[in-house]
Amino acid sequence: SGYRQHEDEGKRKHMWEEKQLHKAVKKDEDVDEIKLPGADRYEFVFDDNAMVDYEEQKEVLPEKDSEQEIHLLKQLEIEQERITSVQETRKVLPVYGYRKELLEAIKEHQTLIIVGETGSGKTTQLPQYLVEDGYTQGGKFRIAVTQPRRVAATAVAARVADEMDVVLGKEVGYSIRFEDKTMADRTILKYMTDGMLLREFLVDPELQKYSCIMIDEAHERTLATDILLGLLKDILPHRKDLKLLISSATMNATKFSRFFNNCPIFNVPGRRFPVDIHYTVQPEANYLHAVISTVFQIHTKEPVPGDILVFLTGQDEIENIAEKMEMIAGKLGEKAMPLIITPIYANLPQDQQNRIFIPTPPSCRKVVLATNIAETSLTVEGIKYVVDPGYVKENSFVPSTGMTQLLTVPCSRASVDQRAGRAGRVGPGKCYRIFTKWSYYNELELMPRPEIVRTNLSSVVLLLLSLGITNLVNFQLLDKPSVSSLSKSLENLYLLGALNSKGTITKLGRIMCEFPCEPEFAKVLHTAATHEMCHGVLEECIDIVAMLHETKSLFMGSKNQNPGLRIIGQTDSDHMLYWEIYDEWRNSNYSKMWCQDHKLQYKTLCRVRNIRDQLLQCADKLGLAALNESARRELVDKQSGSALTARITKCFISGFPMNIAQLGINSYRTVGKKSTSGLDVYIHPSSVVFQSKRDGKKPCKFVLYQQLMLTSKEFIRDCLPIIKESWLEEMVPQLFRSR
Ligand code: CDP
Ligand code: MG
Question: Which of 45, 139, 333, 719 would give a disulfide with 689, using CB separation of 3.0 to 4.6 Å?
């Protein structure tokens, strides 16, 4: 095997110095080159003729009524058993042993930090204890539990509704952006993303509806969590009856305590079995390849039960690996046990997300391919093996250029330790790290960097200003963002017209705050409804903005190979392609068949429709829709295709003036402030713009992009060519005057 436990450090050091491969950026293209591991390296042989055809098991329906009745009775019985067993499982969780002490500590202290091993029951149990202890006063008050991730918020809410035996969306609900599954007069326990609670401050600055707030997964230190902690610290003195629980994995608890005047830390001792750590002997050039080999190495050599959890960086990677594994597992056929491959990432459709929680049948093995959502937010039972390449995808904002990049970076030591711990819940486990021991001790950061020091702050700055917090420098935070990134975001907001030259929020700024999307998108919509040079296209822009929120899971399979794309798309920009897709789908009367024919995800489009409706409602509430209507009436006859494109392009320029790149010799180069030098960027192969270049069309001198990502190259994604250079100056003269 390629692993040796506890490699001698010194011996390996030179190797790392030679190659530094752990830092090597993984190449997207490599994924397709993965070959089946050969028999020489592994002790199992693939036989190409051994392909197994699976037969679909059809559901057998009961034939007679009486049988149907028996069936129903059985179901009821099972249901009854399930409820008692759910109550039993609640009692075996580590927090249950501390229920009384916890409730006493909460009664005594306004703020309490709760630290416990992942899976000990913090998220699902504590809020129920609070309900049981009367903190909601029979429905008078609510309890909010924040989560950094949407998937966790929805999954946990479903689980808790189940445990409390209520219908999800009534007593127990969740609220994530664009999806509110709560009832105003009924929900007492509300799981929500941290960003959603932040937005509640806008309408209810003292959080009067709530008696308890639990900031969960605080150690993740997302931007919204950090800002929430700052705001809560602010309101606690005059909301003496409000309880604040901060729950965190073992890292960093004292920092939270210090921030809240040395409030007590409650430790829930967890049980955890030992986990053997295995490191690679040498750096692996292609970690995806190594992941696949390792999984099959485990699968063919280790006994069951014992499921595998693999940490990957994102959807693309997960889908790629899942496909390869399906293929290999298929070829292995009966030479190995069945391997159940279940992905989990933020954009995965709900019904598929739930698959990770289904218990693995006997003599089978489950492999869960997860983003770092499985690091602490979700617990999958039965994991015995963890495979960890040690990477994570992170947003990184570079103040000097004003750009946000999506980077794949090595995890911190705290993170990889947390990941390893996931193998030791059911019994002794093993963790395979696809990096060297030397790299662990010498290369990895101790702690992850909090998001606030590495992200674009525009939307939270705008939110704080609209809450009347004008002294941003003195606003108390666990970690302060750099002055340069603060001033960059102020500058950006000024450029968008959300602030005036004195730094005070403008009327437009307040409107932008109302929209449930980034200020940049809100500006696009505002321009579309009101700007004299391009109004009348609000609805088209709303369609596009809604689509841009969901592009990651729009196409079935990879976007590069999507035949549907070419069928629909006669356009030269991703934005117009998205619009055409949505428009065609609308014309098909939101048909599911149409989606299948065009290889588009029906569920994603339904989400887009929901987002679109919410944005339109918001525009309507703000009076923008009416303004747009009157502009539109003048326009109807004159609206040719190219006029429409021109108007839409201008609206996006007004919202994203910092996301423009200019054609250079081999690539595009970003343009922002005249003083900065810019960055060479390449149009991503999935873009329509890339394809029209391949078709021999002349590239546009300027292009607007929605996303910048770094993989093997700096790629820009979701691109909109700017057909006339003069539009830049027309829309954003402050930035583009006489270039
Ligand atoms: O928050 P913490 O990590 O301390 O634990 P939790 O999320 O409350 O999980 C407690 C238990 O509930 C774990 O054993 C999970 O496996 C289980 N659980 C589940 O089976 N399904 C869910 N959707 C969520 C939790
Ligand atoms: Mg939790």
Answer: 719
Distance 125 CA to ligand 2 centre (A): 9
- Ligand 1 atom 24 nearest Cα: 156
Average pLDDT, the chain: 84
Q: Give the residue-averaged pLDDT of 261-282.
A: 89
Task: Please tell me the residue having the least CA distance from ligand 1 atom 15.
Answer: 379
Predicted confidence (pLDDT) per residue in 236-247, tens digit = 999 999 999 999
**Band (86; pLDDT cuts 50, 70, 90):** confident
Closest atom, ligand 1, to C-alpha of 376 = 3
Cα–Cα distance, 669 to 323 (Å, whole number) = 35
Residue 682 makes CB contacts below 8 A (sequence gap 6+) with: 667, 668, 713, 714, 715, 716
Q: How far is CA 697 from CA 4, 539, 694, in A?
A: 54, 29, 7
Rounded distance from Cα 117 to ligand 2 centre (Å): 9
Mode of pairing for the β-strands spanning 391-398 and 275-280: unpaired
Q: Ligand 2 mean position to 361 CA, how many Å?
A: 26
Higher pLDDT, 655 or 407: 655
- Nearest ligand by distance to the CA of 95: 1
In tens, the pLDDT along 308-320 reads 999 999 888 998 9
Closest CA to 126 of 171, 84, 92, 96: 96
**Strand runs (DSSP E) across 23-128, as ranges?**
111-116
Which residue CA neighbors atom 10 of ligand 1 most closely? 121
- Whether 515 shows a pLDDT value over 90: the answer reads yes
For residue 17, give the nearest of 9, 25, 6, 26 by alpha carbon. 9
Angle at CA of residue 23, ends 19 and 27, nearest 5°: 100
| pLDDT, average across residues 316-341 | 91
Ligand minimally distant from the alpha carbon of residue 118: 1
Reported ipTM? 0.98
Residue to substitute in 91, 113, 159, 377 for testing ligand 1 pocket (most ligand atoms within 8 angstroms of CB):
159
User: Is pLDDT of 62 > 70?
Assistant: no
Helix (H, G, I), strand (E, B) or coil at 128: helix
In whole angstroms, how far apart are CA 726 and each of 245, 503, 509, 534? Answer: 54, 29, 26, 14
3-45: pLDDT as tens digits: 544 444 333 333 333 333 333 333 333 333 333 333 233 322 3
| Residue owning the nearest CA to atom 14 of ligand 1 | 119
Per-residue CA distances from 159 to 369, 372, 379, 441, 581 (Å): 21, 20, 12, 38, 36
Q: Whose CA is nearest to atom 20 of ligand 1?
A: 357
* Statement: residue 462 has pLDDT above 70: yes
Tens-place pLDDT, residues 681-717: 999 888 888 877 777 778 899 999 998 887 678 899 9
**What atom of ligand 1 comes closest to residue 159's alpha carbon?**
23
Task: Give the per-residue SS3 of 4-48.
Answer: EECCCHHHHHHHHHHHCHHHCCCCHHHHHHCCCCCCCCCCCCCCH
Residue with tokens 């588009």: 600
